[in-house]
Amino acid sequence: MLPLLRCVPRALGAAVAGLRTVTPAPPLRQLLQPAPRPCVRPFGLLCVRAGSERRPGLLQPPAPCGCGCGCGALHTEGDKAFVEFLTDEIKEEKKIQKHKSLPKMSGGWDLEVNGTEAKLVRKVAGEKITVTFNINNSIPPTFDGEEEPSQGQKAEEQEPELTSTPNFVVEVTKSDGKKALVLDCHYPEDEIGQEEEAESDIFSIKEVSFQATGESEWKDTNYTLNTDSLDWALYDHLMDFLADRGVDNTFADELVELSTALEHQEYISFLEDLKSFVKSQ
């Protein structure tokens, strides 16, 4: 009896081994992966909430704009109000525009304008003097400490006049034309709008360097003299050097007038371009 019981597990083990060879078990990684779930909701209802209206698909052609022109472009009430505001703003800016054309500089300066950059050129006794400036970021910020409009006076009448005071670069080239003396000038903010003595300078020299002519970009490796720690006698001679070549207080005043007119002209052109862009279809 005992030998018979011992052979039963062996028979069962052989039978189980036979079953394993017939139906192999799936790999362990496949068993750990979740079984694919069938989609129980139609695809067209995936983006629609219960009780809500169905929105048009992204691939459908856009509906006509709200203004009724049928162009299919984006036209909003905000755009319409924006265009109306720009129309009034352009009209007001043209009304207060002092110079319909750019004013001329005295002293025989030739003016060249390329967008926001202007260049003044003058030749004197074999020397070429070139003054370059850009009107971008040339209007000093207004301060909040301004006086409030008095009774019976409109707020528009109290608005300060915007003045463009750009940095400008003076290049002096001799007849040989090998190198140029470059003087970087600016209008000090603490002197703008203040009444000073007639002998004081309304502009100052910030840096002085020599640069090779005929190169589109100046080299930073060239020595640059900063006037913050410069001897006053040497600084005065540099200012006299500019004055002898027509860059003095009169020139600086006329440059402010020219730059202000150019800045206002470009501002009006920007408003017109902005209006056309917002209004375009």
Q: What would you say this structure looks like, in words?
A:
The model is unreliable at 1-23, 27-34, 37-52 and 54-60 (pLDDT under 50). The chain has helices spanning 2-22, 28-32, 77-95, 155-158, 232-243, 249-279; strands at residues 110-114, 117-124, 127-134, 168-173, 179-186, 204-212, 224-226. With 281 residues, it is of the alpha+beta class. The chain is built from six helices and seven strands. It has a seven-stranded antiparallel β-sheet, covered by helices on one side. The termini are far apart.
- Structural shape: elongated
SSE pattern, N- to C-terminal: HHHEEEHEEEEHH
List low-confidence stretches.
Answer: 1-23, 27-34, 37-52, 54-60
Mean pLDDT: 77
Number of strand elements: 7
**Proportion of helical residues:** 25-40%
Radius of gyration, taken over Cα atoms and rounded to an integer in Å: 39 Å
Largest sheet properties = 7 strands, antiparallel
Secondary-structure content class: alpha+beta
Strand content: 15-25%
As laid out across the biggest beta sheet, the strand order is 1-2-3-4-5-6-7
Distance between the termini: 101 Å
Number of helices: 6
